[in-house]
Every structure is written in structure tokens, then in C-alpha cells.
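#structure-requests
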Amino acid sequence: MYYIMANIGGQAVIEGVMMKSPDYIVTAVRKPNGNIVHKKYPVKTLTTKKFFKLPFIRGVVSLFETLVIGIKALNYSANEAVEDEDNSKEKLSTISIIGTIAISLGFALIIFKLIPLGFAQLLNNQFKLFENRYLFNLVEGLTKILILIGYIYTISKFKDIQRVFQYHGAEHKAVNCYEKENKVNLELAKEYSTIHRRCGTSFILFVLTISIVVYLFLPIDISFLSKSLLRISLLPIIAGISYEALKLSAKYEDNKLINLLVSPGLMLQKITTSEPDDEQLEVAIYSLNKSIEKEKN
């Protein structure tokens, strides 16, 4: 999973790991023949501009850029992780990337916005269980969290996803090692945890939790369509707040209250990460080291 805040961050991809430093991105993939290949290119970001550096604005921009980087890395890994007899490589066009992001966001909106809202609305219409907006919106929010946990747990049972989660664990081990040792190799990295507090999993839970708080103040005596549009329109604000919350949690790692707030995200990583084998960890280390080499040069 991508680290929203870290100097060195990354994402597990198909049979590989993408690592991102402040200036360069490296995606490393293990081919079916056992060789490791990689692709590296400079980071292009709007957050170098004064306006897009502003608190809350930078969170929305970073989230969108993360989606673009992730899709490109996944596309590269999908091409490299299979034997390609004619050596042809499919390159994603800008339209394809935008389309993929739109479909992904649409799926997320249906699963984590419309279904929980519809469930709360159905209960309220059928049984009149909720006499106030706080209870209505709380039930909606808890439903979102349960759907997220259930979704992640379900896909974790698929073999291909299990390998991605192993690479996710390898990515965390490599970054944890580098942050503590200022260097990384196989023997050192094996001793480190597959859990990382700045993982994007924590960001997702921040988004869901903060959305619960924000939605507590929304009216419920409006139509389902109005409720849906109001929630969607607030998403950039919620993403911006979540980004700043994650940034704050990284700054105050020794604060007990902060640690309590990030603990659900760390626990969820017990599902989204698995212990990697040596070959998977080697790919993560290779990717990280390549990004560091590029940075130094």
C-alpha cells in the first residue's frame, strides 16, 4: 500500500513493488524466469506549486496523484509478470488512466457510500429505528467500516491477492529497515515488521472514521439522492482532513492518544500484509535501492 506521507513510500504490485522517493519512482518486478526488471522515471507533482501545498488542498492532490502512479505501476507489473512472446508492451494512454480511475472511484462510491447509506435509509424507512440524525449517520458509518473489513478479508483468501499482500509486507519490511538503519539488505530487512504506521491502509480508515464524524452533522430529512450528492461533494474535504490527520500521526509517533487513533489501521494491516519469502523481499529491497541510487545521482 502507498505511503501517503513518507520520503520513501511504495505500493505492492503484481509480482513486485513500486517505490517512490521525493523525486523518482521505481517499479521492480520479478519475471517468470526469475530475473528482476525495473522501470524508473521522475516524479511529476502539482504539490511543488504554492497553492497545491496548502493544508487540506495537498491531501486531495496527493490522493489523485497516488491513484495515477499506482495504476501505471500495476500496468507495468502486469505486462512484466507474464512471459511475452512477441515482446509487445501495452502502454496506458491518458484516457485509459482517467477511465480506470473513474471506474475505480465509481466502484468505491457504490460499495462504501451508496450501499451503507441505502442500508441505513432502508432501516429507517421500514422500522423507524432512528429518531435523530446522529444515530442514522452512525449506523451508516459503522456499516461502511464493516463492509471494508469484510471486503479485505474476503479478497485476502484468493491466492493471487495473497501474493500481493506478501509483497505489501515485503515493501513495509524494506522501508522499516531503511528508516531505522539508513540502509537495507536481505538479512537486516528480514528482522523488521510487515506493519507500517504510514501505510495507506491507515489513510483509508482515517477517511472512513472522519466521514462518520462529518456526516453526523448532515440532515436526514432529505431525499436519498440529496443525501448521496451531499456526501460525494464532501469527499475532497474529508480526504484533505484525513491527509492532515495522517501527517499529524507521523509527526507525533510517541503520543499515546495518536497511537490509540492509528491502532485500528495497524490492526487492519494484519490482513493486508503477510510475511514475504526471501525472493519477494529481494524485489522490495531492489526497488528501494534503485530509488535511492537514482535519488543520489
